[in-house]
């Protein structure tokens, strides 16, 4: 079964750092585009980052310079390193495969909650 | 990287059709045929319903259809059913390896 499982969320103070993990099963992350998408409480979806199969990475302007997406092929896992966290980064963070490399986000994980608060 | 514009809410009675719009610019929706639609039930992960403007993944009922005209994409749900009540989000490629989502539309089946 094709599946993504996110872990690593939690409560963190403003200015702190957190690393999220997205473990894949049923497919190989190194052969796919994997994205992070977040959803603030009661709000809509916001695209955050992508790592391409070739290793190139891209980030939304709202997180550029603070967040870094990476992957460990040996663990079939994608990471999101989040530094200099702000209150507005509070959200449920989903990882999702881009099935067709053209914005077909499928499947999605169940999400991991990040709360930035003092 | 501005969010695409969707109406906050839409509604229809069982059996009716409802259309949800998604308005962007020539730099995103109007510039690429890479518009997707996602359904999200409360406390659930989003589910892909339409990709590349008009295409339906396997398993998605043909009651769901997509279209695009200029800078506006649309999702039409025909023959509304109770289980269609959910949040719906559009997304589009915005160039420079960036993706953008709409603000979401809550669909209510009356």
Question: Overview of this structure, please?
Answer:
The complex is a heterodimer of chains A (118) and B (110). Chain A is mainly beta and 118 residues long. Helices cover 0% and strands 53% of the residues of chain A. Chain A has strands at 3-7, 10-12, 18-25, 33-39, 45-51, 57-59, 67-72, 77-82, 91-98, 105-108, 112-116. In chain A, the strands form 2 sheets. In chain A, strands 2, 4, 5, 6, 9, 10 and 11 form a 7-stranded mixed β-sheet that branches. With 110 residues, chain B is mostly beta strands. Chain B is built from no helices and 9 strands. Chain B has strands at residues 9-12, 18-23, 35-40, 47-50, 64-69, 72-77, 86-93, 99-101, 105-109. In chain B, a hairpin with a 6-residue loop joins strand 3 (35-40) and strand 4 (47-50). Chain B is globular. The mean pLDDT of chain B is 96. Classes of the chains: A mainly beta (118), B mainly beta (110). Chain A binds chain B through residues 35, 37, 44-47, 50, 56, 58, 60-62, 94, 96, 99-100, 102-111, and chain B through 1, 3, 34-36, 38, 45-48, 51-52, 57, 89, 91-93, 96-104.
